[in-house]
Amino acid sequence: MADAPLLRAxxxxxxxxxxxWFMRQAGRSLPExxxxxxxxxxxxxxxxxxxxxxxxxQPVRRHGVDAAIFFSDIVVPVAAVGFGIDxxxxxxxxxxxPVRTLADLDRLPELTPEHIEDIAVSVRQIVxxxxxxxxxxxxxxxxxxxxYLIEGGPSKNHVRTxxxxxxxxxxxxxxxxxxxxxxxxxxxxxxxxxxxxxxxFDSWAGALSRADYERAVQPHSAAVLAAVGxxxxxxxxxxxxxxxxxxxxxxxxxxxxxxxxxxxIPDALARLDGRYAVQGNLDPALLFAPWEALERGxxxxxxxxxxxxxxxxxxxxxxxxxxxxxxxxxxxxxxHRVSAxxxxx
Length: 345
Ligand code: 1CP
What we know:
Blueprint: H1 5-10, H2 31-37, H3 42-46, H4 49-63, E1 68-69, H5 76-80, E2 85-88, E3 92-95, H6 117-130, E4 135-140, H7 142-151, H8 159-167, H9 169-192, E5 197-201, H10 210-227, E6 235-238, H11 246-251, E7 256-258, H12 265-272, E8 277-282, H13 291-304, E9 311-315, H14 325-342
Bound molecules: coproporphyrinogen I.
């Protein structure tokens, strides 16, 4: 397991082929996912070890990816402590009563392992079935989670979130500190049960200026990453539209920085100054282009990342729901073949 290409690449060691997995590979595009999810609410499905195990394993079986990503959601631990939040089909996370004042934090107690015993059961079951393939655990970063809790749902401009961040720093820091505790505890349970890498999703951090990110957000994300530092698993840190933030996201305590598709790998490597392995970054829309275009884009990323301190191939954001799963399978094979011929390891 320690020799799995994903873990070797994350540590900057030579690999026999470039490891590849896809954000949102579980669920979304797979018909077998839609079948098992039929009639089960999203958050309920995340708390049923039989379903979580099956859904997590589906893309590994089908595509031969180099890692599984735990089937859950960034709001699962927030719901688990009793904060009223649900995932509404076609919408996303919706909070009934959003955070407005310090008193609202009473509804967001600290997360203990007892809140999520089923999560540990799911992880143990998955790891037992995966054999040598690593499982990536994940959590939402404080900013992205705070956005859902403050806006009450998905948001384009994060207006209320930014207003609170600038207008009520005391509440902002208290909320983010609490979310950092919750996400850290969620990650520790997953790693404790056998996950061998973690990814911190700060999907919406790209909405921030670097100055605001470094002042109001990075310390809280750093707290999450530091809280799992003693566990010895690689930490991947990812956000969308974060070209200006890459170095700051690395400096938050990551081993691997996720790069979205808007930034070329050479630019990302320059901005990261050779300090971190990188993950990414094929535009998920290219999966809808003719195969030749997809192959060209893939070969280019592999060539550009050949001298990175480590490279994990991924999309620049999640698999889009309409993606043809067969194209994903073919892409995994392409990444393996091209990188096996190119790499000395
Ligand atoms: O591969 C996987 O699908 C693994 C499981 C997974 C992960 C890693 C899910 C299942 N969600 C996530 C993370 C997640 N959830 C992120 C970070 C990753 C990213 O940027 O895509 C975010 C922002 C969320 C929040 C969320 N949950 C949204 C986005 C809404 C918005 O603000 O635009 C949505 C639509 C969900 C619901 C959800 N989560 C996962 C699934 C399969 C679904 C759809 C379920 C359904 O509607 O039935």
